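Hey, quick one: can you model this chain's 3D structure?
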Amino acid sequence: MANMTITNIDTGSVVLQDPQYADELLALAGADEIADGTILARRKVVTAITPAAGTNTGDGTCTAAAVVHAGGIVPIVGNYVLSCIEAVANGGVFKLVDPNGAIVAPYLYMTAGAGTATVFEVAGMTFTLTDGAEDFIVGDSFTLPVVADTDLVPFAVAGVGGACIPCAVLTYPLSAASGADYPIRPLVSGKVRREKLIIDADGDGDDITKAQLDTLRSFGIVAVSVAELGDYDTQD
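Sure thing. Here's the predicted structure for all 236 residues.
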């Protein structure tokens, strides 16, 4: 009787062993084709921030606020408070305090000048202070609310609000006709084929780094390189 030797073949499956899945929502900004093997991340905070002025004497504005990459820093959920600590003609010096009361930026200097706008990037956020007709005085303030988010999004190297921290893998393709929250069941633990992992923005996994794989491992997802043939090998 002929002996048959079976060598592993590439079945196209991302999963290797012991998969565990979870019901999640995948937030997409627009129409997209998400391939199986796409690495996902959890966005911890909403990227848009809507500043609210206090009972101010100065009528300058705080606008264009948003969460930014800033080295992967994710702002704390809650109200940041930006307050004037020194009055300056057509300007001012401000400090930024986080929701826990810690000072994260003690001296933020506006560029003095009538109607001048100054852009700041600090604590994982960006915002613009613009001088108004009435100067800011000490105690004038703005609240910058950072809102929690728990949706998964495609992992991005420079993703904001946590989108740069890989934590899950989609093991089947998804076709999205428009931007929306899509119910999915991603893999959240188990062994996967390293060669099948994909960064959505790249369309492949050529630029996946060891650090990113180590982060996946910290969430329980182990990527293993597997050398496989494309067919069964039968021998007498």
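One thing worth noting: The chain has two domains: 15-44+149-224, 52-146.
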